[in-house]
Amino acid sequence: MFRTFRSRLLISTLLPFLLIAPILGLTLTALVEERILLPSLAREMADQGVLIARLGTVLPEIWTDPEAAQAFLQALAIQQPTQVLLLDPAGRLLAAPAEVRSALGSSAGGPLFEQARRGEIVWQAALRGTDSDIILDVLVPVTSEQGIRLGYVRLLRRLPDVTEGFQRVRRLVLGTVAVGLLLSGLFGWILAQSLSRPLQQVARAIAEAPLEGPAVTLPESGPQEVRQLIRVFNRLQQRRVELEEARRLLLRSVVHEFGRLIGALRAAFHALQGGAMENPTLRQELVQGMSQTANELARLLEDLTQLYRHTAGPLPLQRRPLALAPWLRERAALWAEMARERALHWKEEIPPDLPAIQADPERLAQALENLVDNALKFTPAGGWVTLHAEVRDQEVWIRIRDTGPGIPPEDLPRLFEPFYRGSQEGRPGLGLGLFLARTIVEAHGGRLEVESRVGEGSCFRLILPLTVGG
């Protein structure tokens, strides 16, 4: 029945009102009847009784002679609906209208009389008769100037007019409850509409969102939670476009790089087939070039393999104890030779007391090789590449610093994204080296940071906790 968000919100708005309003209305009605209407009428009748009592003190014989008492009442000519009774000091009826005398008998004291004997004016309201009318009963003691109790003036009043007033109050309360319920339902429906409409728009936008093409975004409107949902949807749309761009970059880079390398191999094969085999020097150069090209192809395939593994799940690591100082020196020797081949200056600062850590040597070497390879690739001849390692704040810091052209500030935020080339567009490679390096470092529980200034060079910091994998 309440499957939609709108209906549930509407019920949640109406339910408290449905539960509280009737109770509040009945309570209010009872309070008005008990605390306002009846006490006000009782005070009016009591004032009338006090006036009759004062007249009665002037004629003391009416409190001992029933005929004199009846004559006194007739002389007063009290108009309906109030009926006046005179009682002697013992509470026996002296005078009363005929219809009341027949109903009450000779004694009209009752429980109210016991309270009035203390000299207080008392009253009560009760249901009497077959028609369940409210009877307001007021008892006023009559005392002479000498303090002698002469009798009592009792006033009775049937209250059909008050009962009708009570009915009007009840109808007013019920009407107010009905109007409040109607307004609450209307406001609840408007509120439900204002909430469900943005949700329906988001649901429709999700269902109709294209799998390709520009991002389809929605304006942020409605309550905070709905705006947050729309914000997430818009972010997903932007992320989809980014992934599409990454896919296009991947395809373009793969086609370009493999086409370039295969073209180089084909050219070498054609040269060999065309007679270069007869020239030993040229043949050796072509074979070396083919070998380097094959190595580049293997490197590209390895990068793509690592990218696939990254997308398939967490990067698996084979951790074991790794003595950092000898491990770094062993690899630094190869990197120093590569630097000399490119006419670069190489410097290494590796303390012999570097601690051992738990790490995957092959993966960690791959991350460092990507960083060093970038430094060697982008540093012009005659420049410097420095490898520095140290322990700082329970962490191992490995820096690779170069004196290359530096990285433009606009490229830094996206530097570690896959396939992002930035201002280096057109250079060889797929743009996966830094992305894979960061993935490997983060898999070890570390982080990869970069600082760079255009014209001064770059510094990459590979930071690993000493407890990594421990």
From TrEMBL:
Its EC number is 2.7.13.3. The chain crosses the membrane at residues 172-192. Residues 193-245 form the HAMP domain. InterPro entries: HAMP_dom (IPR003660), HATPase_C_sf (IPR036890), HATPase_dom (IPR003594), His_kinase_dom (IPR005467), HisK_dim/P_dom (IPR003661), HisK_dim/P_sf (IPR036097), Sig_transdc_His_kin-like_C (IPR004358), TCS_sensor_his_kinase (IPR050428). Signal peptide: none annotated. Residues 253-468 form the Histidine kinase domain. The keyword Transferase applies. SUPFAM superfamilies: ATPase domain of HSP90 chaperone/DNA topoisomerase II/histidine kinase, Homodimeric domain of signal transducing histidine kinase. It is found in: Membrane. This is histidine kinase. It comes from Candidatus Thermoflexus japonica. The lineage of its organism: Bacteria, Bacillati, Chloroflexota, Thermoflexia, Thermoflexales.
